[in-house]
Design brief:
alpha+beta, DNA Binding (I), subunit A, 4 domains, 5-stranded antiparallel beta sheet, 12 helices, 27% strand, globular, binds zinc ion, zinc ion binding, hydrolase
Length: 443
């Protein structure tokens, strides 16, 4: 991973290689500014020559991939890969539980009259779990903007570009084998038909699915998205260059043909195929688009199908960070994609709750009101040097503070419990995130 570099007066400079950073540090020309993401600060004033840096984002519901890319004339060099892990589902669970407890307590006061319905929601309100997703993504973008001179943002705005597919200019164009547009159309159709044959609903047991013209090309059918469906090869070949009604009249009374008759009659009667729940996902992504646009950087967009198409062409494994790298239009060779991914996991910053509740909603002990103990907070990154006893060794990781002064440290290899605060030294204060490197392909 590239190392972020700040100037003497903390202005972002171009990131450098790990080797160069080591050299600068050993010559005492720079100091460590931040551990995660690793950032150094130069001690002397320097020039600030920059090259175009792109920030590419692939927003998802649980994970958001982010790639920092140097856009050189002949190639794209991936400098840093990030995987942002959201905690939307935890937020949603916590709020659901809180609502249940409140409702239960309110129901005990059954003689108290209801208040009138005076609750309103602000314009542009999003569910807290979704809002959190937007907030954390934007926070990471802003953080990276402070560490390096980002000059453009590319993000995956939609799964499919409907406008492009419905655009009459493209409808007339003869599409060629292997183009992005054809790929996008096929992915869209597969999604729309839930990956089953539109004529037999998988009754033929043929696993090969193809793009099919309802009104055949030979009889003047167009490549318009309205004239296309997904069909299995068996159905596609049986239909050949017949129109739908001609195909219907050739059908016999076998089990397969009976299903086909039902399906084709529905299509002839004007059944419209629609994508399932595309709206909810798009609302969130559109908001992210508006938020990113407010960053005063040029923002360009890509589609999910385009990302997948690029990933196949470059033959990269599927990870969230590499999906981000593959977002948008790509023509140049890509370098540096195999570097480890820095996982940025949203952990929250503790809770306001004063007590935990038992399963009936009754209080079960009281929580501490203090967050800081002996100068440490849960979530701080510490190094604990224990010189004797059973826990002897050097432990680096996230600390969980205890009133007693004996903390737990979550290390890479598990954790160690009950180390004294006196052995601990802070590396980085809690920022609400947990950072670690992940080099294996997951999810
Ligand atoms: Zn079929």
């Amino acid at each position: 991973m590239a190392v972020f570099v700040l100037s003497k007066n903390k202005k972002p400079l171009m990131p450098c290689s790990e080797k160069r950073a080591r050299l600068l540090l050993s010559k005492k020309q720079a100091v460590v500014h931040k551990t995660y993401p690793f950032t150094i600060r130069l001690k002397k004033q320097t020039g600030n020559a920059t090259q175009p840096l792109q920030l590419k984002i692939d927003p998802g519901s649980r994970y958001t991939g982010v790639a920092l890319v140097m856009d050189l004339p002949t190639l794209m060099r991936a400098l840093c890969l990030f995987e942002l892990q959201h905690r939307g589902h935890q937020i949603s669970e916590a709020l659901t539980q809180r609502r249940a407890f409140r409702r239960r307590r309110r129901n005990q006061l059954r003689y108290r009259p209801a208040r009138f319905d005076n609750r309103t929601r602000k314009d542009g309100w999003l569910p807290p779990s979704v809002q959190h997703r937007l907030d954390t993504t934007l926070a990471l973008v802003q953080k990276l903007k402070r560490l390096c001179p980002v000059s453009a943002i590319v993000f995956e705005r939609v799964k499919f570009d409907m406008q492009k597919m419905l655009n009459p200019d493209i409808q007339g164009v003869e599409y060629q084998q292997g183009t992005l547009f054809q790929y996008e159309v096929r992915e869209y159709l597969l999604e729309r038909h839930q990956r089953t044959c539109a004529y037999c609903a998988g009754e033929s047991l043929d696993p090969i699915l193809e793009v099919e013209h309802k009104h055949p090309r030979a009889q003047g059918g167009t490549n318009s998205i309205h004239n296309l469906v997904i069909a299995c090869r068996t159905c596609n070949q049986a239909k050949g260059s017949l129109t739908l009604s001609e195909f219907l009249s050739t059908l016999k009374n076998t089990k397969l043909d009976k299903v086909r008759k039902v399906k084709i009659t529905q299509i002839l009667a004007g059944k419209v195929f629609r994508l399932k729940d595309a709206g909810a996902v798009n609302a969130c992504r559109n908001q992210l688009g508006r938020d990113l646009a407010s960053q005063q950087l040029p923002v360009s967009t890509g589609t999910g199908a385009q990302t997948k198409y690029n990933r196949m062409r470059y033959q990269l494994p599927k990870t969230h960070a590499l999906d981000a790298l593959m977002t948008g239009e790509l023509t140049k060779p890509v370098e540096g994609w195999s570097r480890p991914t820095l996982v940025v996991k949203a952990m929250g910053r503790g809770c306001y709750q004063r007590t935990r509740l038992d399963q009936y909603g009754f209080p079960r002990g009281y929580l501490q009101r203090k967050k800081t103990y002996f100068g440490f907070q849960t979530g701080d990154l510490v190094i604990s040097t224990v010189t004797k006893g059973k826990k002897q060794g050097i432990h680096v990781g996230r600390v969980a503070v205890r009133d007693s002064g004996y903390f737990n440290v979550q290390t890479k290899t598990g954790g160690v419990q009950g180390v004294s605060y006196k052995t601990c030294q802070i590396i980085q204060r809690n920022t609400g995130y947990h950072y670690y490197f992940n080099s294996k392909v997951a999810h």
